[in-house]
Amino acid sequence: MAYEPSEEPVALKILVAGGFGVGKTTLVGAISEIRPLRTEEVLSDRGIGVDDIDGVETKTTTTVAMDFGRITIREGLVVYLFGTPGQERFWFMWDELSYGALGAVVLADTRRLTDCFPSIDYFEQRGTPFIVAVNCFDGADKHEAEDVRIALDLDPEIPVILCDVRRRASAKVVLVTLVEHALRTLTPAAG
Amino acid sequence: MTTRGEQWLDEHAGPIVRPYALIRGRTRSSADNLDLIAMVTATGSPYTGEAGLGPEEQRILELADRSMSVADIASEIDLPLGVVRVLLGDLQDQGMISVRAPAHAGPRPNERILKEVINGLRAL
After folding, report:
1. Half-sphere exposure of A191 (CA within 13 A, CB side)
2. Contacts of B72 in chain A (CB under 8 A)
3. Would the CB atoms of B118 and A36 count as touching at under 8 Å?
4. In angstroms, rounded to a whole number, what is the distance separating the alpha carbons of residues A64 and A43?
5. Residue A71 is part of which domain span?
6. Residue A47 falls within a domain, yes or no?
7. CA-CA to A119 of 20 to 30 Å: which in A61, A131, A160, B50?
């Protein structure tokens, strides 16, 4: 596609959310060069008691490692993927992450479907375009996407797809589905 | 430099510089609101401060020679994001880097850009 060489470089941000251990890091790694990002955060009151910090009561900060990946579409057009921290006590980081995000992939595991409720609530409230991608683990029941939609009580326009985040081709479909959904959401006039 | 008579005990005697010591204990800076995907570019302006540039700041300037995102810089120098933001704030205050907010600062993402992303992802 032709573009003006003098055009300002564009960076876009896509979030990968979902419960702990659902495959967020695997998805980011399947489609991009994954890199660690260290943050050091103050433990919230909520985290105390969740973390086993008996005997180290003075510990008030914790290192949160996030994963991010970068996909270069062309020179001057880059998509960044950020895996959101899985534990709820790191939610304060989500506000920063989701600010200006193009959209979010909510990964779901049908064996623990409730784990993705908080992510869905969050993106619904913020108005961030999102899709639900059901990661089909080996041995997990192959639920139909529509069953998941009903179980999650999702609006009909929100895409629900099955995927295998270990496969690059599947990860591509997930991201393409999200960007297409974002395009429909953000430019409703463009039928 | 330590001189005879000074005592460095316990955590003060640690062999490595703790991250927040690099920034003299500060946790806030003018770069607090830097988006993770804001692009940082070295301006080439000379350093005019008095404290001297630390190796971490020099490394940031090297990385930003050809524009780099905040997230990439933080990952590259392997320091916590909060520390990197303070260092970036210092360099920004010195006029040694310029920071450009990502595209979403505009009213809405450009439809043409999104279509280009879709095609680009498919072609990966």
Report:
1. 0
2. 35, 70
3. no
4. 10
5. 10-186
6. yes
7. A61
Residues in A touching B35 (Cβ below 8 Å): 99-100
| Residues in chain B, total | 124
CB contact under 8 A, A187 and B111: yes
Q: Which pair of tokens denotes residue A133?
A: 């991608």
Count: domains in chain A:
1
Other residues' Cβ atoms within 10 Å of the Cβ of residue A168: 13
Residue B8 pLDDT greater than 50, yes or no: yes
Considering the domain boundaries, does residue A1 fall inside one? Answer: no
Interchain contact, A179 vs B117, CB within 8 Å: yes
Check which CATH number belongs to the domain holding A76 and give it: 3.40.50.300
**Do the interacting molecules here have an ipTM over 0.85?**
no
Cα distance between residue B53 and residue B124, in whole Å: 41
List Cα–Cα distances, B79 to A28, A39, A178, B59, B73, in angstroms. 21, 8, 31, 12, 9
**A2 in contact with chain B, both atoms CB, cutoff 8 A:** no
Q: Is residue A160 part of a domain?
A: yes
Architecture category of domain B10-122 in CATH: Orthogonal Bundle (1.10)
Mutate to test the interface with B, among A35, A78, A168, A179 (most CBs of B within 10 A): A179
Please tell me whether the overall predicted TM-score, pTM, comes out greater than 0.90 for this model: no
CB atoms within 10 A of CB B11: 7
Domain ranges of chain B: 10-122
State the Cα–Cα distance between residues A30 and B47, nearest whole angstrom: 42
With a CB cutoff of 8 Å and minimum separation 6, the contacts of A51 are: A43, A62
Tokens of B87: 């260092």
pLDDT digits (tens, 9 = 90+) for B87-112: 999 999 999 999 988 765 444 668 89
Please tell me if residue A188 touches chain B, with a CB cutoff of 8 Å. no
> What span, in angstroms and rounded, lies between the C-alpha atoms of A22 and A135?
7
The whole-number pLDDT of residue A42 equals 60
